[in-house]
Design brief:
The chain contains three helices and eight strands; from the N terminus they run αβββαβββββα. The chain is globular and about 45 Å long. Helices cover 18% and strands 37% of the residues. The chain has a six-stranded antiparallel β-sheet with strand order 1-2-6-7-8-4, covered by helices on one side. A two-stranded antiparallel ribbon has the order 3-5. The chain has a single domain (5-151), classed as Thiol Ester Dehydrase, Chain A (Roll). By secondary structure, the chain is an alpha+beta fold. β6 and β7 (120-129) form a beta hairpin. The termini are far apart.
Length: 157
């Protein structure tokens, strides 16, 4: 996987629209035209944390945010700002455990497998901790060029 030092140094808040506790990705580890790897780590006091750890279903959001960072980096190369994307669903989500360890570094990888001209994309995603694979799924998303028009909102209210 190719990585540009300038890409890994970009503050993650410049690439994702999520904020505060829902900004789950810490930084970009690697990026190419086909895949991305990001780092996430969630503390015990995070609102999504439970006494046994971070529920594995949070992995779906981690994967979705990795895909969003991938798209934001592509847009950045075109001189455009990040856009809101929509998670359409997942297939074959499988977690090796019902919880991720609190504070454990999680490496989230998303590999582009299909994309069309409408903004629809499909990614094979995986999450690894220091022991290896902990979750995987196929993630489908859509990033319309104009989210307001796509959702049917009128600019005048």
């Amino acid at each position: 996987m190719w990585t540009d030092v300038h890409v890994t140094g970009i503050p993650i808040a410049e690439l994702l629209v999520q904020r505060h506790e829902m900004l789950l990705i810490e930084r970009v580890l690697a990026f190419s035209g086909e895949e991305i790897e990001v780092l996430a780590r969630m503390a015990a006091d995070h609102p999504l944390a439970e006494p046994r750890g971070i529920p594995a279903w949070v992995g779906i959001e981690l994967m979705a945010q990795a895909v969003s960072v991938f798209s934001a980096l592509e847009l950045r190369e075109l001189g455009e700002a990040p856009r809101i994307g929509l998670l359409l669903g997942t297939r074959k989500f499988e977690a090796r455990s019902p919880y991720f360890a609190v504070g454990a570094p999680l490496r989230v990888r998303a590999t582009l497998t299909l994309r069309d001209d409408t903004g629809l994309g499909v990614f094979d995603c995986s999450i690894h901790d220091e022991r290896g694979l902990v979750a995987e799924a196929q993630v489908k998303g859509h990033m319309p060029a104009d989210i307001d028009a796509f959702l049917g909102e009128r600019p005048d209210g």
